[in-house]
Amino acid sequence: MDVIKKGKIFKVCIPVLLFFIILAGGCTVESGAARRNVELARSLYDPAYGWQNHCDAAEAELNTALKKSPNDTEAMILLGRVYLEQARSMESRYLRKAERNFKTALNYNPQLPDAYIGLGDIYIRQGKYEEAKNEYKKAVRFIPGTREIEIRLGNVFLEQGRYVQAFRYYREILSKDPNDVEAIVGLGNVRLEQRHYEEAVNYYKKALKIDPNYPYAQMGLGNALMEKRSFDEAAARFERVISLSKPEKYTHFSEYALVRLGQIRLEQRKYDQAGECFKKAIELNPESEHALLGMAKVYLAEGKKTDALMKVREALAVDPISEFGFIQMGELQMLGGNYDEARDQVNNAFGINPESEEAYYLQGRVYLTEGKLDEAETAFKKSASLEPEYYAKPYLGLARLYLAKNDKTEAVKNLEKALSIDPLIEQDLKKDPDLLPLAELILKKQQH
Prior knowledge:
- It is a single chain.
- The protein is mainly α.
- Among the domains are: 22-145, Serine Threonine Protein Phosphatase 5, Tetratricopeptide repeat; 392-448, no CATH class.
- It contains 24 helices and no strands.
């Protein structure tokens, strides 16, 4: 299933949790006027749940404060936070501005834990996990045992795929406060990444019992339900996230939920509804990689290959190392008969995620199209092994492959498996004169 990476929101998927710790000294405010600008900026910037409110106005107030008091480290750190909120992509100019403010504050006073935490949050956003961990550990020297840093360290290990260590950090937090919803969601994210979907669902539901409106728990539960192919239940969770979002606040939540809703509608073959969701997400954020890729899938389903190719290119311009961008580009290249280029794109995807079930499935399709049946069989079986109960496409690929080998028994067995996971596959076979009759017979047998 094409997803925003689960745990990384999300691989997801969770977004950096933003907060403020009381600054440990070093904030020099030289004028009452500058102090008023800082306090006004703080009231404009709402860090609740980690997303922006009136960031532009807060930015203006903080720049004014720094003109009045150039060495006000509190203003520098708050401005860094505001820039971090405004950053939309890993290479955003706002990330560079945020980094500059945190480092400048540390030049004035190297004992500011908030500045180290800010740098760590930037690096985790950029995928520089070791650098992030180092910055968080610097902060720990000044505020040891701080729960917010432990959460972040757990998140770093989660992003690195070091699930045992991440689980340990979250459990340590819960040993001190059993109702810490962020830590409970962290445990859910670990289980989601490990493909233990039922356990993930239980953790997210536990978090929602404590805070029914906690958006990360709602989104995590929606993701786990999507992986279980419980699409209507998942859709309800993402619709709830949108209803919790306010017009000028938490737009990232709405964007994310709209993308996920669009992906659900794609799975349900409701292409018009999917397109509407992706378009709304793009309105909120024109650089929404997954919304652009979702729109590409809609166009491809409608037979608009040129439009699909344009959207994939836009997505790869936003994130040049996008696993799903490479996969979709590979599919388009394969459909255009450019098999070498398609294989290159598959290899690019493997470079990011060696266990990508979608990349293995596409690899199998390329080999099958070329008549390399043994290689195709290996790729499809690997894809199926990664998500044996929830990903139907590799079984469909195997059904086609066994028909090509004149092995009708194996073809029927794999087609039955595909249809048991996703009955809507029958709609995809309308133009397949070989598999459609088999699918119709299987579905009739299942109905009786």
